[in-house]
Every structure is written in structure tokens, then in C-alpha cells.
Design a protein that fits this description.
Layout lengths: L2 H8 L2 H51 L1
Length: 64
């Protein structure tokens, strides 16, 4: 069984609400959009790097 599936099986709606409340208390309402923007940028860069790596691998396979 997948580890993420196991973890999500233990997290219910009350636990999610508590986590969201703690994040709001820790960072405040003004910092959260900045954090999400940074997270989105990081995910986009990761996807771009993975995609370029796959393209390079395909080019090498075509040359062989």
C-alpha cells in the first residue's frame, strides 16, 4: 500500500482544520499568499527540470 494513501487515511476533516488553523496562527494571513506563490514557483521549476531531463534523454535515445 502506498505511504501517502496510508497517511491520508489517518487524516480526517478535523485534523485538516487544526493544521490550517495552526498554519494561520504561525504565519498570519499576509504571509500565506507569499508562501503559496513560492511553493507554486518551486513546483513549476521542478516540473520544467523534469521535462527538460526527459527531453534530453529522448534526444540521446534517438541518436543511438
Amino acid at each position: 500500500m502506498n505511504l501517502l494513501t496510508i497517511f491520508l487515511g489517518f487524516v480526517g476533516p478535523w485534523q485538516v482544520a487544526i493544521i490550517v488553523a495552526l498554519v494561520l496562527l504561525m504565519f498570519g494571513g499576509r504571509k500565506i499568499p507569499e508562501l503559496m506563490r513560492g511553493l507554486g514557483t518551486g513546483i513549476k521549476e521542478f516540473k520544467d527540470a523534469t521535462k527538460s531531463d526527459d527531453e534530453e534523454k529522448d534526444k540521446l535515445d534517438e541518436n543511438k
